[in-house]
């Protein structure tokens, strides 16, 4: 009781300070950064929620026609779930608008750090704005346009009647009746350049005559220009942010972030036998891990980046420490490494990954974002994400070799071209599992594996196949994992930071 009345008072106090006026619209161009103090906890939770939202925007944009009923319903449901503004100018959604404002600026900081990140962030923010703008009623659109200084002059009824033939022929899909119904605006050519290029607008005396339904293209163009500039400016201020030791790890984590379980709880520990791995690599491994497994079998060796990425993945799918040691050793001694060298040089890092050496951190498997964004492979490496790091021709060959149908390969390559690497991987999942809709948003190689196993076993968990070596480890590992999972985001962060240390330390190829 006391708690809720305290929160109510706090909210009231904020409102009394006229903070509500900060957000007169449910929609904004995010021109001014937030000026209030917020806790690190709020900073992190707002940012993670926006990241979840933008990932849904990306996923929906590829899976459905933007603006279709399903697209809109799904996006609205996500906005509601994450408590962002979802209904145009709904009353009393100050908290949602505040969260929208602050979270945008936090992700702007995290996603200004490289060209790839900036492009991804810009695309998703544009799609989000497009959806929200199109949800506004006509009068609210007008208000919003005035608010962002895009108040275009409305074409008078008399002038519209005079020009109705020209307007009808220059506006694709418009009948004469439609021209009569719609408001038209006089827009400067610089603002209507996309419509002008696509020959979809009537031009007279240096003005484009744009129907209300096409105003969104202009608004988006304007927003894109502003946000691109803002991202470039923010990137320039990075050095000062990078010196802030509270913010930098958080921002780095966000731009490599995976929002979901970290697969540190190894529910399946000991349930997989070493003999199953070859078959599993074909049926249930994502392409990155299938590639690493094949390279290991072919060359009896993997370089450091590959061992880290694949070793932690295998740990995540349930290999015990004893199994991992046996697995790597058996393979390495078939190549140029003898048993003694393996024990001295390589076994340490495997035990380290399982939290048995060094700082005894129970390391978590890499997420897709981490694999895609950091440590790109060089010559002789097999780690990384094939959708991100492989040459398109090589990727095509690989997919052909894995019997992906030609039409599917074309779809995958299109997604790769648009830099939707995880969606390309989802498409690969659909094609190799013969399903129409993957039904989940892919963010983690271990998630791919779990979903594949769930599907192949008809919704059941992995069949338990205990191996002797695995059994004794299971209990202690689960216990460690439970501990490390109690604060997932911070533990991820710590693990990430410590892993960097380990990577630097263990550089032997
Ligand atoms: Fe692996 Fe993720 Fe790339 Fe798929 S998208 S290949 S799971 S890194």
Automatic annotation (TrEMBL):
GO cellular component, as recorded: alpha DNA polymerase:primase complex
InterPro entries attached to this UniProt entry: DNA_primase_C, DNA_primase_lsu_euk, DNA_primase_lsu_euk/arc
Any one GO MF annotation of this record: metal ion binding
Region of interest called Disordered, as start-end residue ranges on this chain: 462-509
A GO BP entry: DNA replication initiation
Cofactor(s) named in the record: [4Fe-4S] cluster
Pfam families: DNA_primase_lrg (PF04104), DNA_primase_lrg_N (PF26466)
Residues at which [4Fe-4S] cluster binds: 288, 368, 385, 425
Keywords per UniProt: 4Fe-4S, DNA replication, DNA-binding, Iron, Iron-sulfur, Metal-binding, Primosome
Comp. bias regions, Acidic residues: 497-509
Entry keyword Metal-binding: yes
Homology family: Belongs to the eukaryotic-type primase large subunit family.
Subunit structure: Heterodimer of a catalytic subunit PRIM1 and a regulatory subunit PRIM2, also known as the DNA primase complex. Interacts via (C-terminus) with PRIM1. Component of the alpha DNA polymerase complex (also known as the alpha DNA polymerase-primase complex) consisting of four subunits: the catalytic subunit POLA1, the regulatory subunit POLA2, and the primase complex subunits PRIM1 and PRIM2 respectively. Within the complex, POLA1 directly interacts with PRIM2.
Protein name (Swiss-Prot/TrEMBL): DNA primase large subunit
UniProt source species: Halcyon senegalensis
Source lineage: Eukaryota, Metazoa, Chordata, Craniata, Vertebrata
